[in-house]
Every structure is written in C-alpha cells, then in structure tokens.
UniProtKB/TrEMBL annotation:
It comes from Streptomyces kaniharaensis. It is found in: Cell membrane. GO terms for cellular component: plasma membrane. One of its GO terms (molecular function) is transmembrane transporter activity. The lineage of its organism: Bacteria, Bacillati, Actinomycetota, Actinomycetes, Kitasatosporales. Belongs to the binding-protein-dependent transport system permease family. FecCD subfamily. This is Iron ABC transporter permease. CDD domains: TM_ABC_iron-siderophores_like (cd06550). The chain crosses the membrane at residues 37-58, 95-116, 123-143, 155-179, 191-211, 223-252, 283-308, 323-342, 351-369.
Length: 376
C-alpha cells in the first residue's frame, strides 16, 4: 500500500510538473517554432558580425574580412598591410565582445524577470548594475589617481573586474535582505521597490565619485564608460566574459523547469517539488556574477536585458527551455547591431552604446507593452 501510494504521489507530482511546463510553454498567436527561429538568428548574427567588422572609418569588403579571419584561424602568415591590423586586432575582438555581452544581458534579463515574476525587472532596476558600476568606478578613480594604467591584464583591470562583481553581489544582497523582511517572507514587489531605491542611492554615490576626480579628461572617460562602451576591446578581454556567459547559460538552462514552475507562484512551485528558496539563491548568484563580469568589460548598457525577453516571449512563449537560448542569441544580435551603429552613425565620433540602446529600446518597449495591454 505504501509503495502504491508513493508511486501515485510521484506520478501526480510528475503530471503537475508537466502541467506547469505546459502552462509556461503556452505560445502567443502566430508563435514561431524555436528551432527555425534559432537558426535564423544564428545566421543573422553571422551577417551582423561580418558587417560590424567590415564597416568603419576604413571600410573592408566582406570577402577580405573572411580572408583575413581564415588566414588567422588556419595559422597562415597574415598579409602585409593595415587590413589585417584593422580586421583581426581591432574590429573582430570588439564585435565578438559585443555578441558575448549582448548574450549575457539577454540571459540576465530573462532570469531576473522570472526570479521576481515581474516583466519590467532587469539588472538595472534591481540595483545589480548600479552596484557593479559603483565598484568599478571607485576602483577606476582610485587606480588612475595612483597613476595605474587600465588594461584587462593589468593590476587595475583585474581590480575593476573584481570590484564590479563584488559591487553587484553586495547590492543585490542588500536588496534581497530588504525584500525578505516582513511576516510573509519574500515579496517580489518589495524586491523591485528595494531595487529601485538601492539603484538610485548607489547611482548618486557613483556620480559623486565621478565629480571628485578633478581631471576633466578622466571624468569624461568614466562618464562615457558608464554609458556603455566597447572601444577598448582586445582579445585578452574575451575569455572571462565568454566563459561566464557559457557557464551561466548552462546553469540557467538546467533550471528552466524550475523557473517555469515559479511563474505560477511560490506555493505552487513548492507543491511541485521545487526548492524555491534554493532556486532563488542560485539565480541570484548567477545573475550577480554575470552582471559584474559584463559591467567590468562594457560599462552600463541599459534596455537590452529588459527588452530582449519581451521580444522573445512574443515570438515563442514563456517556456524557459526555449526562452533562455533564444534570449542569448537575440541579445547578441541586438548588441552587435547597436555597437555598429554607435561606431558609424556619426562621422569621426563614437556614441556611447547606452545612448543608442535607449533611443531604440524605449519606443520598442512602449510598443510591446501596448500590444500586451491590447491582448490582456
């Protein structure tokens, strides 16, 4: 009898879990299939990367771009001239870093929105990016005042990365503690409100530090970095963020079913066998680490983590088994395109990436929200 009851309970839990995943997988009207969409996004990403390397102050034909890349990848000696320097040393690392950062921001935005069950949540709204920016800026200001040079392999470059991660972790920890106060325990609404307050507070401290630099050129450089920039991208910068994004995708994908269950509320998810507290803690650590790493190499880039999950949900629905990898691909494609526009939109002047994402992202987000309200 006990064995039969246990078997029945197990089957009921399995059925309920499948039902939870089925609800999360509910697709909007005219939804696209994930496989063909992923293939299309991957092809578009290759084209966008080619255009990003080809376009600039000195245009390089796409055929020459792939010729230089092929020679480098096969170990053959590069052709003499400046084309190899422009393509391989300057533009390819920057284009690849844009893809990695965009993929990471798409992942973080999707995970955070599931974490707090709020479609308007992103790392910036919850104070994660503000904490990372404060740590990085404090280190930049202190390091440059001591005469240290910034480079990813330098002592200052490593310190900036570690400080950004520590700042992200500390900020979200504070927000998390504030959200858990009260008799009813964790509250997504309190988490969002606490995140907004902490983000504004840390942003004020960051602005104060920037104004205390006393060097106009340094102030402009830090402000430009805070608005997002990939201008200093080199090959040495790619390994850490690429590894972090790949590991983050693997960890989040392994928890996709739990994220689907959490969409129906903590009590329902717990009834389906999900350890909600542990899952939230794991997502919290993953998003904090990813945000810290990304901010350290690119500065603060807004709207990508907020907009990309909305677009992907409209295309394939809310099942995180499909949503996470598609958000990574969409974020990578978006940021490569945005970075290319930031470099080439104005002759002789580069725009901060955050300016372009805000100009493109705000109207797009308003349009998406308007569509959701019409169908709600």
């Amino acid at each position: 009898m006990t064995s039969a009851a246990s078997k029945g309970t197990s089957q009921a839990a399995s059925t309920a879990t499948e039902e939870a995943n089925g609800r999360a997988a509910a697709r909007p009207a005219r939804a696209l299939r994930a496989g063909p969409l992923a293939a299309s996004l991957a092809a578009a990403l290759v084209l966008a990367l080619t255009a990003a390397v080809s376009l600039g102050a000195v245009d390089v034909p796409p055929g020459e771009v792939w010729s230089v890349v092929a020679r480098r990848l096969t170990g053959r000696a590069p052709e003499p001239g400046t084309r190899d320097l422009i393509v391989w040393q300057l533009r390819v690392p920057r284009a690849l870093l844009a893809a990695v950062v965009g993929a990471g921001l798409g992942l973080v935005g999707t995970a955070v929105q599931a974490l707090v069950r709020n479609p308007l949540a992103d790392p910036y709204l919850l104070g994660i990016s503000s904490g990372a920016s404060l740590g990085a800026v404090a280190t930049l200001v202190l390091g440059t005042s001591l005469g240290l040079e910034l480079g990813f392999g330098s002592a200052l470059g490593l310190a900036v990365s570690l400080a950004a991660f520590a700042g992200a972790l500390a900020a979200f920890s504070l927000v998390w503690l504030l959200a858990r106060r009260g008799r009813r325990g964790f509250s997504p609404l309190r988490l969002v409100l606490a995140g907004i307050g902490i983000a504004q507070f840390l942003g004020g401290i960051t602005s104060y530090l920037v104004l205390q630099t006393g060097d106009e050129q340094q102030t402009r450089g830090v402000l430009f970095w805070l608005m997002g920039s990939l201008g200093g991208a080199v090959w040495a910068q790619l390994a850490v963020p690429a590894a972090a994004v790949a590991l983050g995708l693997a960890l989040l994908q392994a928890r996709a079913r739990g994220l689907n269950a959490m969409l129906m509320g903590d009590e329902t998810a717990a009834g389906l066998g999900v350890d909600v507290t542990r899952l939230r803690r794991e997502i919290f650590v993953v998003t904090s680490v990813l945000t810290g790493v990304l901010v350290a190499v690119s500065g603060a880039i807004g709207f990508v983590g907020l907009m990309v999950p909305h677009v992907c949900r409209l295309l394939v629905g809310g099942d995180h088994r499909r949503l996470l990898p598609l958000s990574a691909l969409t974020g990578a494609l978006l940021l490569v395109v945005v970075d290319t526009l930031a470099r080439t939109a104005l002759d002789g002047q580069e725009l901060p990436i955050g300016v372009v994402t805000a100009v493109l992202g705000a109207p797009t987000l308003l349009y998406l929200l308007d569509r959701r309200l019409e169908h709600s």
